Amino acid sequence: TPTDKRIFVLAAALRAGYTVERLYELTKIDHWFLHKMKNIADHEKLLEAYNQDESAMPPEVMRKAKQLGFSDKQIAQAVQSTELAVRKLRRDWKILPVVKQIDTVAAEWPAHTNYLYLTYHGSESDVVFEQPHVMVIGSGVYRIGSSVEFDWCAVGCIMELRK
To answer: Which residues form the Carbamoyl-phosphate synthetase large subunit oligomerisation domain (predicted)?
Structure first.
């Protein structure tokens, strides 16, 4: 049944051994998306193999986890460690996100926007912060029909900070 909780049922099904093909038969969700979810579930199983010994994990396993969207807390749960221990190890290994800009003009001309995001899929930041700064992270729920440009909560926060 399509709901906003459906993704969690799919994740549980993958953990229980359902194949992508079987999930496609049940849901008609495109194979591409199901394979993406399977990659995440498979990587979680790999992380769990480093049970209580996150330092034995190769750095590339952690890097891939971050690229797949795992939080430090999720990695810690998988390896039965603490979020702080995982974060320290990640920083020691220099597995850090970079700042990228969203191109809001579809490359029609050079864009210098303030719409930024963090990613583990880059090697260098698009923006260098040379002076003290504040980052306002978008607030509210992002669903179809809303976007960064119209996140009034974040805009209101910025206006108050400027005051």
So the answer is: 1-120
